[in-house]
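User: Structure please.
Assistant: Input sequence and predicted structure:
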Amino acid sequence: MPGNSAEGMRERLDAVYRAESRRVFATLVRLLGDFDSAEEALHEAFRAALEQWPRDGVPGNPRAWLVSAGRFKAIDALRRDSRVDPLDEDAAEKIAAPDDPASWGTGDIEDDRLRLIFTCCHPALPPDAQVALTLREVCGLTTEEISHAFLTPAATLAQRIVRAKNKIRDAKIPYRVPAPQDLPERLDSVLRVIYLVFNEGYAASSGVALTRQDLSGEAIRLARLLAELLPEPEVIGLLALMLLHESRRAARASASGDLVLLEDQDRTLWNQAMIEEGTALVRRALSSRSIGPYSVQAAISAVHAEASAPSATDWAQIVGLYDVLARAEPSPVVELNRAVAVAMRDGPAAGLALIDALLARGELEDYRLAHAARADLCRRLGRKSEARVSYERALALTRQEPERRFLERRLAELSSGG
């Protein structure tokens, strides 16, 4: 029995770590004013919980307990250090700060991650460092996961994150949400970060699971907070886009965890409440004088969501929306998605010609979805040898197990004549 009790407590503590660690970290950054001190305090707090909770029980508010424990540990460390070196002014202020967690306020703790995002997305940092730092420090993604999203070596990402943290410390970049007049110029980086977090949760870059609901759910929560703070059309558009994507989560994988394509999904599993909220937000975003790329992408997702069956999808409207998106935010990935939509509207040969022209430019040579899309169109046209080459290229580039199994099944079907 004691072993089972200890095991249960460890599982509970692990669950608290997954749910609360980055929130606790964000609050500790606010209280201690330093990333490294907050990270060390976070680990000390969970070490204390591992020692005390089996004896005293799990506290009613684990997050507040961990914040308080981490802060006390950090203050103890400062006091020990002060016996050797005199405390600087900042450290003295930390020791003098109020100790009562109740004085921080629930709202403060809830909003700390939003404050931290704006700190990490400060214009003094390079754009790529803003995104990498936020994904690492706010959301807890590993350096390897971020490197997959950026198609950048992990060592390069690690150096980028260290330099960004040093810049924040040395330049004394404030830990706060910017003043209203400064918010618009800071918004683009914040939206990009939130969407990258969502994408890592909606279609994990690697691992055994197709999705990570904790990350996509957190991105939606952060977008809701941002929409309350700054209800700009693109904030509303991004929230709509994520809700419409998230509405399909239950249908995107089989019971065994295998990938299910959009055209094969059981649409009765789609979350209608999310679809209704998302489409209402799309209408709100599109009523603005200026329509940005997130709002256009949300409109595309709304067209998919409103189709009762794959055959009912208005592909002409989707192609038209991709034309708008290509003008607002031109990119090879947008061109690829438009090519797939053209294939659905005009036939696989038309889409394949566009993808081949895109690949000939060399910009998507290492993008697995480009090769997977080409393989599918070749398969539909009966060009099996070409399809096999493209599926194998996509397979070589994927790091996600459900995608790998899907591509292997496609290859097996080609070999068996299916």
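Residues 102-107 have pLDDT under 50 and may be disordered.
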